[in-house]
Amino acid sequence: MSSVGAAALHRFIAGVYASVGVPAADAETVAALMTEADLNGADSHGVFRLPQYVRRIRAGGMNPRAVPRLVEERAAAGLVDGDNGLGHLAVAFAAKVAIEKAKTAGVAWCGVRNGNHAGPASLYARMPMQAGMIGMYMAVGSANHLPPWGGLELLLSTNPIAIAVPSEEETDVVLDMATTVAAYGKVKVKAQRGEMMPEGWMIDRAGNPLLDPKRANEGLLLPIGGYKGYGLALMLGLLAGTLNGAAMGSEVVDFNADDTSVTNTGQAILAIDIAAFGDPALFRRRVDALVRELRESERLPGVERIWLPGEQSALKRREREATGIPVPAPLRATLDALADQVGAARLGA
Q1: So what's the pLDDT on residue 281?
Q2: For position 194, which CATH number holds?
């Protein structure tokens, strides 16, 4: 396992995108977001995804020169068409729209259609939070790995949700979760590293535990909380996909297996201006108080610490800013091969 600094990783990602025709400004924007994902510990949703994104661009399945645009608009709502470009660009644009509208309306919702996979959900929930608001993000996953509860047909995806709430002095509270026990990206990371999956992530079509990630296409992801997770995946998909005119159910294109079809991925951003409900500073102090109450509450035997959502990501970020972002040998080999294929500089140390 080697490590690379955030600046070097950013340069590498931007250079690869520029080599396949992505405009320089867009390459820089997406490189910054993907590097942010790795800094926060989202190893399955940062530079790990770069070869797949580039493969789709080169195969014609994604538009490298896309221009996201607002196609529907109300005082507190909007719909962005991503022009089949890099998903990061479309969702970041939608977040800006939601933030600006929330400044006057108090709350704003912006959907995305004709987008693509955009990395970890928390990236976008954090955008309103960094503007002093509460942020919420949801998406239709980019491949179906979940059947309806009790079924075998893969008609739903991991459909993630993230919610980011600012604090005053404590670590911001940031929930980022798939509606399946494990996001499929984690399965892919296990496969690349030659590791087995824990029991409880996937089952085969006979209902037996599936532990080998290289056989993932034979199995089904399990929802969180049984039938409740299935229900949550369905409802999030309706909000992020169907409402926007984006793909849902059997319409979802498996971007792991298909590099040429338009995915029409759907996402949604909600921005809530805290000032519309009272004093933002008072709210953040109350968040601090609740965080401390939860952390200092009585623990079960053997439990060393009660964690709040977002705390472990914040710790990873501090570590990686100081010591670098870890790059496993199989991933580095894949990135070196990608750089050679597109004529970009390899990832430096």
Answers
A1: 98
A2: 3.30.60.50
**Residue 105 within any structural domain of the chain:** yes
Q: Could you report the average pLDDT of every consecutive run of 10 residues in the chain (349 residues)?
A: 95 98 98 98 95 97 98 98 98 98 98 98 98 98 95 96 98 97 90 93 94 93 96 98 98 95 98 98 98 98 97 97 96 97 91
Which tokens sit at 284?
């953040």
314 in any annotated domain: no
* Burial label, 206 (beta-carbon count in 10 A; 0-12, 13-18, 19+): exposed
CB 275, CB 134: distance < 8 Å: no
Name, in order, each residue with C-beta under 8 angstroms of 51's C-beta and a sequence gap of 6 or more.
334, 335, 338
Whether residues 37 and 169 fall in one domain: no
pLDDT of residue 263: 97
Domains identified in the chain, total number: 3
Q: What is the per-residue pLDDT across 242-252, written as a single tens digit (0 to 9) for each?
A: 999 999 999 99
| Tokens standing for residue 255 | 């971007």
Which residue reads 């609740």 in tokens? 290
For residue 242, the tally of other CB atoms under 10 A from its CB is 15
- 258-264 contacts: CB < 8 A, separation 24 or more? 258/61, 259/55, 259/56, 259/59, 259/60, 259/61, 260/59, 260/60, 260/61, 261/61, 262/61, 262/84, 262/114, 263/61, 263/84, 263/115, 263/116, 263/117, 263/142, 264/84, 264/113, 264/114, 264/115
Closest CA to 266 of 152, 131, 110: 110
pLDDT for 1 equals: 81
List, as one string, the DSSP characters of 105-129: HSEEEEEEEEE---S-THHHHHHHH
Is residue 146 assigned to a domain? Answer: yes
Contact (CB, 8 A) for 304 and 295: no
Q: Looking at the domain assignment, is residue 315 inside a domain?
A: no
Nearest to 75 by CA among 117, 103, 114: 103
pLDDT of 238 reads: 98
Q: What is the pLDDT of residue 349?
A: 56
Torsion of CA 337, 254, 49, 110, to 10 degrees: 150
> In whole angstroms, what is the distance from residue 14 CA to residue 29 CA?
8
